[in-house]
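Annex B. Sample input.
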Amino acid sequence: MKIRRISAGIAVVAAGALVLGACSNDPSDPSTSEPSASSTGEATTGGSVTVSETNEFFSFNSSTANGNTDINSKVALVTNSHFYYIDDQLKVQRDESFGTIEKLSDDPLTVKYTVNEGKKWSDGEPIDADDLVLAWAVFSGYYDDAVYDDAGEITEGTSYFSYAGSTLGLGLTDFPEIGEDGRSITLTYSKPFSDWEVALDLDRPAHVVAKGAGLADGAALLEVFKSVERGDSEKPKETNAELKAAADFYNTGFDSKTLPSDPSLYLSSGPYIVSDVAEGQSVTLVPNETYDGELTPKLDQITIRTIADPSAAISALKNGEVDIVSPQANADTLAALEAVDGIQIHQGLQLAFDHIDLNSNGVFKDAKVREAFLKTIPRQAILDAIITPLQPDATVLDSFLFVPAQDGYADTIKTNGVAQFTEPDIEGAKELLAGAKPEVRILYNSNNPNRVDAFTLIAESAKQAGFTIVDEGDPEWGSRLGDGSYDASIFGWINSGVGVSGVPQIYGTQQASNFNGVSSPEADELMDQLISTIDPAEQVALQVQIEELLGKTYTTLPFFQSVGVEGVADRVQGIDTYNPNQNGVWWNVWEWTVDDAA
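Annex B, continued. Sample output.
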């Protein structure tokens, strides 16, 4: 599942948003910066927990458009320090044991970020202003001046950092003012920004990105940032070689399905650090001995096992091989969990939805062909096969910006045109095709039974209207999003529950997570207004207008709001509530303990 990120480095509902290791370094070797327990001897209470996850880990950088998957983002959550986190009530909680966020002024909006003195990466390097400026450079799109053609290809200028979130918010800022302490930056916005509180966070280490770009250190990278002017697509300039080298390394240099031989590629600033990655099988986390914040890890080890098959995950839970499972929810999953002794079951509606996206080029360049294909999609049958057995009163989801419990849902479904595609209209599709028999390649996660069911139902229906369907099912579907190797994609977005920047992240023209290339200039203008609107009621009204415009592009169709279910062994303490956003059980990982007497 992709995470619809808010501007800070979100894995829609990727949240609003949009989501693999063999060798292990010796923790006794100080060159690995990879401890097995806290140096104080008081940080852990001991024990280990094993968690089953559906998707394979493949990147230590979850902020890129490619790396922004649920599992990569969960590992990033555990191994990074943050200015804030989102709790199980979807409230923003500040972690002032790491640093502070201060709003200095409302007019102009001015925000200061300060990392506390003494904070370090796990290799001992201090966390400084250069790290914050790197995050700002990535999240703001400040240097980009690329010009795109109708197919989304760059014809002039340069797009530097591949950021999964929307760059519109931090794009309202000039180059940061760097504090004399060397640990703070101050951002001044050109106009109000609704998501300012969650706009910036610590990302990858600047000194590692600098090394990957052939620069001496983080200070040298900072000088590169200072030397390059803001990008302007109206006046594209020659690519800056040093900045491009840094961006290229940032975009791909942290991708790895195994534990890198270079420990700098998986540095930690948070409670835990990765100690092993078995490709496609598991990720092992141990306490980070350099961490000195208040979110102190209490376990000696957390192992994440990749188990795509829900029945296999539940069997592993029953056999004591794993302690926590969050499998794809369906009736069989729930029944199987209910038959397991010694566990707690948490269930609830997620801030997530499954959907299909149609590329706006290739076979679907013609809007009539897109509309015809949407007319074949059996949304009610998909709901009945996947969700209704779990939630008998569930209905098809008729919005891609709201879920039924949110303000705005009732209004948007009146105008966005989605409801007309509830049941297949094969004759209507044939009429639009006028005898044509387009070939459609559909990408989906072939290891996910719910997506397999959806694909099967869609393929059977679309063939009746004359479409030729090519099965592009792929366990590594996430790495292919936006690469042009398919025509339609079935996946899910999951939301953080805060902010509105996930809207332009996915639907803004040329935004990194806009994988299907949808573009509506009128909607873009409204998205610009949205991110600068503080009043919640006005935000809802703008999103209703945006969805009406996007609905007319016939490029996306929601299926259902996802139901989440998880099983937690009684021996695991600290997981007491259901969290509907992308972090799930992981949101308070530092509170987990084990009690084998339970």
